[in-house]
Write a structure and sequence with these properties.
The complex is a heterotrimer of chains A (394), B (307) and C (99). Chain B is an alpha/beta fold and 307 residues long. Chain B contains 11 helices and 10 strands. Classes of the chains: A alpha/beta (394), B alpha/beta (307), C alpha+beta (99).
Amino acid sequence: MKKNKLFISGDEAIAIGAKLARPHVIAAYTITPQTIAVERLSDMVESGELKAEYMHVESEHSAISACMGASAIGARTFTASSSQGLLYMAEGLHYCSGGRYPVVMMNANRSVALPWSIYGDQRDSLGLLDSGWIQVYVEDAQEALDMMIQAYKIAENPKVLTPMMVNIDGFILTHTYEMVNIPEQEKVDAFLPPFETVNKMSFENPKNMGFSSQPIDNTEFKYQQDRAMFDAIPLIKETDEEWAKTFGRRYHGMVENYKCDNADYIIVTLGSVCGTTRIIVDELREQGLKVGMLKIRYMRPFPEKEIQEITANAKAIGVLEKNISFGYEGTVFTNVNSSISKTKARPFMKNFVGGFGGRDITKQEIRQMFATLKEQTEPSKTVEYFNLNVATDE
Amino acid sequence: MNSPDTILAPKRITAKNMTEKEFFYGHKACAGCGGSVAVRLALKVTGERTLAAFPAGCMAAVGFIYPQMAFQNNAIITTFPGVASMASGISVGAKALGLKDYKTVAFAGDGGTADIGLQALSGMIDRGDDLMYICYDNEAYMNTGIQKSGLTPYGTQTTTTPAGKNLPGTKTHKKNLFEIIAAHDIAYAATASIGYPQDYINKVNKAKQIKGPSFIHVYASCPTGWGTPTNTTIEIAKEVVDTGLFFLAEYENGEFKLNKNPKEFKSIKNHLSKQGRFKHLTDNDYDIITKQRDMKWERMRKFWTLP
Amino acid sequence: MNRPVKQEYNRPTHIKDFPVGPQFDAGHLADENAGWRTFKPVVDAEKCINCLICYLVCPDGTIIKGENHVSVAYDYCKGCGVCANECPKDAISMVKEER
């Protein structure tokens, strides 16, 4: 009997998703908590289950460089990283999007040193929001697996041709186990066509690639990159619809609106904490409170229109993120607030910042966030560190 | 790794029998550029099914100025530290796609090889990826304006190692790049100079036959950075070998082999004093340079196979 | 084609005509290098023994092989003088450009 459900970790779900997309080349350097994903892929290559070249590169910089090289000859590529490794790749991330190489990577969201911490927050990928990659954040292992396959379809679309990063919370998702539906290979093959691009070397039509531009045309290439991101928005939605038709699971494209329609108080958040927030929304709704959650799935391209529509009638909005841009506010907040500020709506805006280096975000803390939103009667301090363990002088 | 008898002895390449097709043409390198000679000749040996990779550096800067594309074959600019890994990716990607009959070649300068690119190069050799790596050594970061690299020799004046009352210019000697590469137990590595072009192209041809990584360190003069007339590019690169400051050698089947063992060295002083970058050298500096050369040759003559 | 030739190049006027990503046709030349020269190499066909040393060492690939002697592709010769310096028969002289 074919097993189409497995009890697996987030990392394993990523590995299976990547395998089903049939990459030609995998180049990755290990870093906790990404390791299990690349270990499983190595197993699959060893067993012959996955016909791919696995490159044992000596660094993340080489991982992304190797992927770009392989992509430039027309190969489908996969890499995976996290935290310091992602930062070590930073040059290559910009290079890859500028080169229009649709590499797909998994990033296990992890804290950034110093101080050292192998545990999760989202400061690694959010710090690289401007690197020109499509960034999606997943809530559970199933979404992680499904997004691996969707990622190739979106990234490789000729109108998009932009690399894509699937972000999955370190440990909370990478190392916890869930029942995950495994799509059938034939269905995946029908969903995801082989990689075709004009942006590659060929013997029939040789190319000089990755060239330098002069001031007279550099802006045009950057404009193209920017347009490609916007062109991805309708495709992200279509791809998700097509996925739903084929596999019966739907993630609602750019964002998920969870009970926001008549909500007075909305928490906007992303990643695994959406799971906890959902429970609190249900609980408070049962108590008659008009609350909702807006799950951001894509940070780039940014779901501006969706956020504007969904939050239009809210009284107060809290952005919950495991991230801070020191000296200002959380980057997710900045983006959300910017979207809302372009409308007539003037809800109270709060930024709940915490969960750094693996610190748990509890149900009680989320209850308290909704309570804080409800109490807003006039503008107050934007950023609130909601789970500091000590008193401060503020 | 290639076993000794899998490296075929290829037919000798000469100016007469090599392809007339120019693959590196219309580029914007300085007049008399030695790096261009190294790249141009290598591509004429590896041919039109070459997949060439260049990190940020002179050849990238002069060959890919949109819309002036100076390579007739497939070529790409890579990340600066990542030429070896990006070229590896090309080679491995081509293999995974089932392409046939191609050669991937990475070209990088001394800085791109011995400094910022060394880690990726080590990884490339370690993995056994099928590609040739050519380091064109003009002994400093020329593209950015003549700054010291790990292959800048003792006494060289560069823009970051100025010579003055307190310093002789560069205080360190060249890294032993060829032996660092050989220490990976690579199937084939060689040194060459554009001053001995016949030797160089035939080493490229030999490396081309290797299935796996191969490496060539080619000395390539730079009139702009060295303060030499544009017409002496080849002369200087020949003379450096004749003075013993550079050597022609191969590493094959686990053995080092000197290709040229001059009975007498030409004058170091005469050679260096022609170059603006060495104009300031004192007799003490010449002593240091001579001693270093002699030590190196004593060791090579003792342990390496002689021609 | 042994050497690519300069092609007429019209800068795109609409964004759709730009290459997708920074890639373009190999060997596409929009510009010549002749203007760089102060001196130009002139080959004395009588003296040239067709040894092809100049052909080998030209940084720009602008020495053209011939039946009995070499000639120069002046569109892309930068006038560095390497060919003249390496010629064993002094068959190449560097002559001041007249413009």
